[in-house]
Amino acid sequence: MKNIIIHGGIFLLLIFWCLAFIFGCKKDNSTAPNSSTAVSVSAKDYLNSSNYDKLVIQIQYVNGYQPTSGAVDDLKTFLSQRLNKPAGVEVTYSNINSPGRTVYSLDDVKAVESLNRAVKTEGKTITAYVLFLDGDYSQNNGNLKTLGVAYSSSSMVIFEKTLRDLSGGLGQPTLGSVEATVSEHEFGHILGLVNNGTNMTVSHQDEPHGKHCNNSNCLMYYMTETSDMISNLLGNNVPVLDANCINDLKANGGK
Ligand SMILES: [Zn+2]
Ligand SMILES: [Zn+2]
After folding, report:
1. Cα 115 to ligand 1 centre (Å)
2. Which domains does the chain show, CATH number per domain?
3. 227 CA distance to ligand 2 centroid (A)?
4. Distance, CA 240 to ligand 2 centroid (Å)?
5. CA of residue 221 to ligand 2 center, whole Å
6. pLDDT (mean) for 174-184
7. Cβ proximity of 137 and 166 under 8 Å
8. Cβ(27)–Cβ(90) under 8 Å?
């Protein structure tokens, strides 16, 4: 769980809500999107190069809700710095018409992926699917807004409409900085952080808040509700992983 409280003219509470999902359970793919072709992948498969030496990310967006190119570049840089993928990290873009909802459940999200995911993990290439939607999350609760969810071992959704509603205005962070922060935080879960498929080298899990880091300055901290986070985002500085999180990734095959 990661929250940002932004003090503007209106008090807004943004929340990153992240599913704690289980990796490595091969039978789970019976209910996963693209179950006929899905390959079970682990955090280690993303981090090291023994099974896969290349990563291809499908950025899929509803027409009109394409993420900023700067944020996608930032995500690529983040991954290139942490993953051992000597053949590179590539991004493909594809767009879809609106599924026509104002709010989306995770079942809705999975249905969109099942119909539209084009990247398939095979050979030496591992893939990930990132969906940018034109609505809010169905589980939002008042001012608590979910910005993104990593809902499977290789898939995440970003509620791009929500991000746009809460960024870019006077006293608000830029859209690009919020997009980069959310997508990198969610990818951190796919990489097994914190204690989510990648073992901890030292204890630093904020257990009351799930699979998150106990360092309030870390990208994987569940909540930042101080002006520090606000000023960081206002300065377009996306939070970075702290040493404990980086060491976990290194110990599991990353860099
Ligand atoms: Zn999270
Ligand atoms: Zn951390």
Report:
1. 26
2. 2-24+35-251 (3.40.390.10)
3. 19
4. 8
5. 6
6. 91
7. no
8. no
Alpha-carbon torsion angle 65, 221, 19, 45, nearest 10 = 90
Tokens of 47: 């981090």
pLDDT at 36 over 80: no
Full-model pTM: 0.85
Statement: residue 217 has pLDDT above 60: yes
β-strand partners of 129: 58, 155
Q: Contact 106/148 with Cβ under 8 angstroms?
A: no
User: What's at 159, amino acid-wise?
Assistant: F
How confident is the model over 92-103, as pLDDT tens digits? Answer: 999 999 999 999
Contact 84, 46 (CB under 8 A): no
Q: What is the pLDDT of residues 103-150, one digit of tens each?
A: 999 999 999 999 999 999 999 999 999 999 999 999 887 777 888 889
Q: How far is the CA of 220 from the centre of ligand 1 (A)?
A: 6
Distance separating alpha carbons of residues 176 and 164, to the nearest angstrom: 10
**Dihedral angle, C-alpha 113, 14, 140, 212, nearest 10 °:** 70
Which ligand lies nearest to the CA atom of residue 220 in the structure? 2
Query: 64 C-alpha vs ligand 1 centroid, how far in Å?
Result: 26
Q: Would you give the distance in Å from CA 148 to the centre of its chain? A: 6
95 in Cβ contact with 60 (< 8 Å): yes
